[in-house]
Specification:
Blueprint (H helix, E strand, L loop, with lengths): L1 H11 L10 H6 L2 H13 L3 H11 L6 H14 L2 E3 L3 E3 L9 H7 L7 E2 L2 H11 L4 H17 L8 H17 L5 H13 L3 H14 L4 H13 L3 H14 L3 H18 L15
Antiparallel strand pairs: 1-2, 2-3
Helix pairs in contact: 1-4, 3-4, 3-5, 4-5, 5-7, 5-8, 7-8, 8-9, 9-10, 10-11, 10-12, 11-12, 12-13, 12-14, 13-14
Protein name: TPR repeat-containing protein
Keywords: Signal, TPR repeat
InterPro entries: TPR-like_helical_dom_sf, TPR_rpt
Length: 277
């Protein structure tokens, strides 16, 4: 095992964009080993080390599995991003939190180029049957719509259509989970296709019953379809399960309004204002 340990040290020291891994090293470390080690580093919150390992192994982004792991790392665990085409990462210390560091280091260095959309689209052209790439692209477009931090040339309507296209393909080929069904439901709801959004939110809830955002947006879709009683039930559930003050406030507010419209005594706690803008 010693040669593998030394190999990982070599890969961790690799400079992004430079193929410093020797032919011997490349032959010794398998893709599965690199992905496993990267996952362990991410679980230990060593995000920059994980990135260096992956990028050193596949600097030209030709391996779909490695690129997918890089996409997961880039979209979820970066310290800073430049329009989701370049990223900065950090290895967290035991008591550090990534969200706190993001607020503190607003001008942190962006050292690692990785144009998420371009990388995934190029790989999808080469492997059109790799539906994990469709799922990753859909997740990318969802994040773009949420953060409004990239793809300035794409309107919200375009992003919803791209989400719907790639999530639908992914789902048709078994690449779905509670999160992807929720996000596709969100896209259909945002397109005012409320009837289509219902089974998607319901599927998300079936896969993860305690997922408050799915309950909340299901309540919204029911409301738009004039189904106020099931909307009230879902709003109350969302308020009960909410894990952020903002979502709890919004869900309680919606529940109160639905109780008023239904003319029934309120059993919903009075919403307390949050500090959100």
């Amino acid at each position: 095992m010693l040669h593998r340990y030394l190999l990982f040290l070599l890969l961790l020291a690799a400079v992004p964009g430079q193929a410093q891994t020797s032919k011997t090293a490349a032959a010794t470390a398998t893709e599965a080993e690199v992905l496993r080690k990267a996952t362990e580093l991410m679980q230990d919150r060593q995000y920059e080390s994980a990135w260096k390992l992956l990028n050193g192994f596949d600097p030209k982004h030709r391996r779909p599995a490695v690129a997918l792991k890089q996409t997961e790392l880039a979209l979820n665990y970066h310290l800073r991003s430049r329009e989701l085409e370049g990223f900065g990462f950090v290895d967290l210390k035991p008591l550090e939190r990534l969200d706190s560091l993001r607020a503190k280091y607003t001008r942190a260095a962006i050292r690692y180029p990785f144009a998420v959309e371009l990388v995934l689209k190029n790989l999808l052209k080469q492997q059109p049957g790799n539906y994990k790439l469709n799922r990753a692209l859909a997740d990318y477009y969802f994040q773009v719509e949420q953060c409004q931090c990239a793809e300035a040339d794409k309107s919200p309507a375009t992003l919803y259509a791209l989400m719907a296209r790639h999530y639908t393909i992914a789902h048709q080929h078994g690449q779905g989970d509670y999160s992807s069904y929720y996000k596709l439901g969100y896209a259909r709801m945002s397109q005012t296709r409320f009837t289509e959004s219902l089974p998607l939110f319901q599927r998300s809830i079936k896969l993860r019953p305690d997922y408050a955002p799915a309950h909340f947006h299901l309540a919204y879709s029911y409301t738009e379809l004039k189904k106020l009683r099931p909307a009230l039930e879902e709003a109350r559930t969302a308020a009960r399960l909410a894990d952020t003050p903002e979502l709890k406030y919004d869900a309680n507010f919606v529940a109160s309004e639905l109780e008023r419209r239904l003319g029934i005594p309120s059993s919903t706690p009075k919403p307390e204002p949050t500090n959100k803008p």
